[in-house]
Design brief:
The protein is built from 2 helices and 3 strands. The protein is elongated. The protein is of the alpha+beta class.
Length: about 70
């Protein structure tokens, strides 16, 4: 991960760090849920999306971002 700027460090301290998680649908059901992977960057989440799309078990819905003070 690249070096954080001072401004990014201040924002992370106040609001928390930004993370990404993919939402998927289990094919053949009405269940939509978050995957068990939390990603630190959007690029990592997009790589995981490609893995999801290559399976027949899950249908990719969207990637959501959230902030947390907890370090994942």
């Amino acid at each position: 991960m690249a070096q954080e700027t001072v401004l990014q460090s201040i924002i992370a301290h106040i609001f928390g760090h930004k993370y990404y998680v993919n939402i998927v649908n289990t094919r053949g059901t009405n269940r939509c849920e978050a995957t068990s992977f939390i990603h630190r960057s959007k690029d990592d989440a997009m790589r995981h999306r490609l893995e999801i799309e290559s399976t027949r078990s899950f249908l990719y819905i969207e990637t959501v971002s959230f902030r947390s003070h907890k370090d994942y």
